[in-house]
Structures are given as C-alpha cells and as structure tokens.
Amino acid sequence: MRILVVEDERKVARFIKRGLEQEGYAVDVAADGLEGQHYAEAHDYDVIILDIMLPKKSGLDVLKELKEEKRKASILLLTARDSVEDRVKGLNLGADDYLTKPFAFEELLARLRALMRRGVYGTAELRFSDLSLDPATRKAKRGDKEVTLTLKEYALLEFLLRNQNRVLSRTVISEHVWDQSFDSETNVVDVYINHLRNKLDNDPSNKLIHTVRGVGYVLKEE
Questions:
Q1: pTM score
Q2: Domain 126-219's class?
Q3: Which of 13, 94, 117, 146 has its CA 20 to 30 A from that of 111?
C-alpha cells in the first residue's frame, strides 16, 4: 500500500512515516496543502493521511478538490481534539475517517486496516487460485502451506493480488511498493519478484507470477 502523509509538524510527520515504513508501507510526506495536493494529483495513492490545519492551503480545501477530481484514495483526516465542526465538515466533504491528535500509533494502524477492509479494498482475505493473503494478519498461504514473507515481499504480493490478471510495469510496481525517492532504474523489483517466486512458485506446472518481457509482471494462471 502506498500512503501520502500531508502534515506540517515535522516531528509528527517523521513519527508517522517511520512507523508506517516499519510496517512495510511505502510513504511519501508533504509539508503543506499545496505540496500535498500536487503529490496526490501526480501519484496514485491508496490512502492519504491529511491534516486539516495546513499552511498555504487547508486540508479541507485539498479534500474538497481531490473529491471533485474523483481521486480513488481513501482519506483519513487528522484533527485537533476540539475541532468538532471541522471533523463534521470533513466527513460531509467525503473523508473516509478521522483521527484526533494526539493519537497512539496503534490507533492509526487500526484505522488504516479498517479502511483496507472496506471500499476499494474489498474483502479482508485476498485470493487467487490456491494462493491466499490475509491483510489483517499478513499471513500468506499457497495451498495448505503457510509462507513466511518479509515486509517488502508482503507489500509486493498484496499489490499483485489486488491487481491480478493485470500486467504491471516495473515503474508502477515501484511506485506502489516503494516511496517516491525510490530509484526505478535499479533491479530491486526483479530481485523481490524472484524472492516471491522462490517462496510461492516451486511447482513449475502451476506458476502464478509471470514475466511480460519488456514490460513487467502479471499474476495469472497458465
């Protein structure tokens, strides 16, 4: 999952970014409303964590414009504890949830998991052929065999499962699994695809991860 954090308080932004990256998410950070809107319009995010009180452009104005543009990202607002009116306005403008400051990081994770279980994220468990992945527990199985994944392997497999039968370029994969500072000219995507193949595709007659030469990869059955 790729997440944009729009937060002008540097300590809060660093705290969120570090914690989410440790959970395996790809995270970009913007420090004001204009920069946040630019990022949101230039990239395809799954979730935007948006502070309401921002310099240059308020979070509510950014939210309103993104919803008018029909951006697919779920939006989680960060609000001051006493800003009831702003929270109500944000929800009426189309925000998916809100979190009041200060908050525990575990609560932020719980809100993100709740967003994952609804809307564009569909059912809690992802399935394709005999492969399954539970985003809540991060457990993967191929048939009856449980597969242990690293954080980046999990993020990559989740993205493939959410886009099954769709050919994904290396650039698209890198944008969703790594953050915007990732060097797309490296072979890291290919390396992690090979890691997944070694763990999931041991049966040559029933491989699921396929190379599309000159383009990228696709999760499909033969």
A1: 0.71
A2: mainly alpha
A3: 146
Give pLDDT, residue 139: 85
**Rounded (10°) CA dihedral 96, 82, 12, 9:** 110
Tell the CATH superfamily of the 2-121 domain: Response regulator (3.40.50.2300)
Tokens of 104: 């525990």
Residue among 15, 19, 69 nearest 45 (CA): 69
- Tell me where in the chain the CATH 1.10.10.10 domain(s) lie: 126-219
Among candidate residues 194, 195, 187, 163, the one with its CA nearest the CA of residue 176: 163
**Residue 72's closest CA among 93, 98, 41, 30?**
41
In this predicted structure, the answer to whether residue 215 has a pLDDT above a threshold of 60 is yes
Q: Reduce the secondary structure of 107-132 to three states and give it as a string.
A: HHHHHHHHHHCCHHHCCCCEEECCEE
The more confident residue out of 216 and 118 is 216
